């Protein structure tokens, strides 16, 4: 079966029907959640502190939901209006931006404590044009240079993607490097066709060593992953129910509010009670 990025441009491929089908597919939910948890692990954020994260190609918010559960604040960008509509219907907490990442970001320098991107980068390799300024290298260059600037120093961006050749990996890593990033590739389960996952771990400033990929054979990996996912899901459910019962610690709530204020939010409540607000897609 052909990969989606070879079939149609993303905003066409992820129309109303496909966006709903994608989001409601339990297998997809499981795989994307697993990769999001792994990306968070590779981000190596300071423990027990809410961070302000960018979800690149956020789609319908499958990853965003996990960022919420993990106590982070996030903004998401995506090119497909239907995906963002589904995210809105699901009432995700992040701020959503309709945007083509190949045109670069316009965020203030140093805005984000980190960024994740799950199953998106391969789309930039398949721009359907030979026009020089919209060729994949140009789009990737704009993407990496503006991402570099949007991240604070030091920090990391972790981008899981599906390369189809070593040349693609070479192109992506060299352009990321030219944009100023350190870091490199982390390949989990390299010997399993099914479980193999490629993460580009990009570092701004002194982000430390590139971590080792997870190892394991083809057998057992999937079951192991399922068990891990179920455990995480249980923990996330427990956290979500704690959130509902408002039993998060006072310090944690204060820290999160401080983070909101630092990011320029104007409607942060002054008392200790957090109140959600309606989200809008920004154009
Ligand atoms: C496989 S989906 C993944 C969505 C989400 N990250 C997840 O894990 O569920 C790929 C997403 O990348 C988005 N995408 C592809 N090319 C893009 C671009 N140039 N700019 C912004 N988003 C893009 C698509 O619209 C789609 O929502």
From TrEMBL:
Location relative to the cell: Cytoplasm; Nucleus
Region of interest: Disordered: 212-243, 264-283
InterPro entries according to UniProt: Bud23-like, Bud23_C, Methyltransf_11, SAM-dependent_MTases_sf
Entry GO CC: cytoplasm; nucleolus
Transmembrane regions listed in the UniProt entry: none
GO biological process, one term: rRNA (guanine-N7)-methylation
Similarity remark: Belongs to the class I-like SAM-binding methyltransferase superfamily. BUD23/WBSCR22 family.
Compositionally skewed regions (Basic residues) per UniProt: 234-243
Domain Methyltransferase type intervals: 54-126
SUPFAM superfamilies membership: S-adenosyl-L-methionine-dependent methyltransferases (SSF53335)
Species this chain originates from: Thelephora terrestris
Single GO term (MF): rRNA (guanine) methyltransferase activity
One Pfam assignment: Methyltransf_11
Alphabetically ordered keywords of this record: Cytoplasm, Methyltransferase, Nucleus, S-adenosyl-L-methionine, Transferase
Residues of the 18S rRNA (guanine(1575)-N(7))-methyltransferase Bud23 C-terminal domain: 202-280
Basic and acidic residues biased stretches: 223-233, 264-274
Protein name according to UniProt: Williams-Beuren syndrome critical region protein 22
């Amino acid at each position: 079966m052909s990969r989606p990025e070879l079939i149609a441009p993303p905003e066409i491929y992820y129309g109303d029907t496909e966006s709903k089908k994608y989001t409601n597919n339990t297998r997809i939910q499981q795989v994307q959640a697993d990769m999001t948890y792994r990306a968070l692990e590779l981000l190596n954020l300071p423990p027990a502190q809410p961070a302000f994260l960018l979800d690149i190609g956020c789609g319908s918010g499958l990853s965003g939901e996990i960022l919420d559960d993990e106590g982070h604040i996030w903004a998401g960008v995506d090119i497909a209006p239907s995906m963002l509509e589904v995210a809105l219907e699901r009432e995700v907490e992040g701020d959503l931006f309709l945007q083509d990442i190949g045109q670069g970001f316009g965020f203030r320098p140093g805005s984000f404590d980190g960024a994740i991107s799950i199953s998106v980068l391969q789309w930039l390799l398949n721009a359907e044009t030979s026009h020089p300024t919209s060729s994949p290298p140009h789009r990737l260059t704009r993407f990496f240079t503006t991402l570099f600037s949007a991240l604070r120093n030091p920090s990391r961006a972790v981008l899981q993607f599906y390369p189809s050749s070593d040349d693609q990996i070479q192109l992506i890593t060299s352009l990321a490097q030219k944009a100023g990033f350190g870091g490199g590739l982390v390949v989990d389960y390299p010997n399993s066709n099914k479980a193999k996952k490629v993460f580009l771990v990009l570092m701004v400033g002194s982000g430390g060593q590139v971590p080792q990929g997870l190892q394991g054979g083809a057998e057992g990996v999937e079951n192991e992953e399922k068990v891990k996912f179920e455990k995480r899901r249980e923990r996330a459910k427990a956290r979500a129910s704690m959130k509902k019962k408002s039993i998060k610690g006072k310090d944690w709530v204060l820290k999160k509010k401080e983070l909101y204020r630092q990011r320029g939010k104007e409607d942060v409540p002054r008392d200790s009670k957090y109140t959600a607000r309606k989200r809008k897609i920004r154009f």
